[in-house]
Amino acid sequence: MSFYESLTILERIPFRELWQKYTKDDVMRALAKEKLDKEDLLALLSPAASWHLEEMAQKAQRITRSHFGYAVQLFTPMYVADYCVNHCTYCSFSAIHDFPRKKLSLEQVEAEAAAIASSGLRHILLLTGESRKDSPVGYVKDCVKVLRKYFSSISIEVNPLSTEEYQELADTGVDGLTLFQEVYHQETYRKLHVKGPKRNFRARLDAPERGCQAGFRSVNIGALLGLYDWRQEAFMTAMHARYLQDRYPGCEISLSPPRFRPYLGSFNPESDVTDRALVQIILAYRLFLPRSGITLSTREPAELRDRLVHLGVTKMSAGVSTEVGGHTSDGGTPQFEISDSRSVPEIRDMLYGSGLQPVFKDWDILAEGSVR
């Protein structure tokens, strides 16, 4: 039984009616508990909880300091290819958009890696567009072999792969997987993913579990907030994370709450996710999943990131470009517009000024023989 079976059961919840039934007492009851269940999560995401964000924030901060101290891990994404075969309605890299596509040679990958590493970062997230033809597993492996010379931790965000393919990448030196479901509401998923392998909802939904089975140290999931009702999407994301955490306790399960940002096309998101809503989501995640990492990207503006970093966030991106080769050349077409363009030193100084500890490296593969 995969999370898909759980999802089909959870989808029967009458969300729209249920949200209105929760009261202050339900929220307070959830806040008083040590381990929260499904009903508690629903209460914390309900409209009633939006009036109690301060109480939620105080407990979320205590939990975060207890499990993670004052540490905030820094990383940056590195785009190596933007070829994509999918017809998605909300992404610049979609095959429906006509722009000059790029794919870095291994020499260009090395130059990009050296430029990023000079900032002190030792955690990298390698990204490609979703095309098995243009960025196959073999190409990703070759890129990883280059990146191993510069980074102690390499995560990937590529098209869903089989367990065996994930194992190949783990053997090469990849230790983390990021894969966003984009939207958990199946009808909306079908509507937004018009054509291409990404249209297969279940193949994508089960991929994080395949990553856990392949032995990745960390798996990061999330929904692109705005594509459907944010309360329901946040609920499904957290339930997916709890499912993975319960079955794979040796794997660090993290969540990201990315909000929709402008891109090459003209799609308008269905759900308005306000700053206050984003805060409620992050707090609900922290209270429901005390041990999970929470990643905050440069999709959010600097002033908001400076405030959110106190509410449960454990990982932040810094010095970001969403263009292929964006650190060493003029780059190309960005996947989406970022909001916080601060450099790595600027983010570092912000964290120190906030009483937090920026972490440039907290993981390394000590047994080199385990990496081919």
Structure description:
With 372 residues, this protein is of the alpha/beta class. It has helices spanning 3-10, 15-19, 24-32, 38-45, 53-68, 106-117, 137-147, 163-172, 186-192, 201-205, 207-214, 230-247, 275-288, 302-308, 344-353, and strands at residues 71-81, 87-88, 123-128, 153-157, 176-178, 193-195, 218-222, 252-256, 293-296, 315-317, 357-359. The chain is 40% helix and 13% strand. The protein has an 8-stranded parallel β-barrel, surrounded by 5 helices. A two-stranded antiparallel sheet has the order 2-6.
Describe this structure in a few short sentences.
The chain is an alpha/beta fold and about 375 residues long. Helix content is about 40%, strand content about 15%. Helix 5 crosses helix 13 (about 275-290).
Fold blueprint:
Elements: H1 3-10, H2 15-19, H3 24-32, H4 38-45, H5 53-68, E1 71-81, E2 87-88, H6 106-117, E3 123-128, H7 137-147, E4 153-157, H8 163-172, E5 176-178, H9 186-192, E6 193-195, H10 201-205, H11 207-214, E7 218-222, H12 230-247, E8 252-256, H13 275-288, E9 293-296, H14 302-308, E10 315-317, H15 344-353, E11 357-359
Parallel strand pairs: 1-3, 1-10, 1-11, 3-4, 4-5, 5-7, 7-8, 8-9, 9-10
Antiparallel strand pairs: 2-6
Helix pairs in contact: 3-4, 4-12, 4-13, 5-13, 6-7, 7-8, 8-11, 12-13
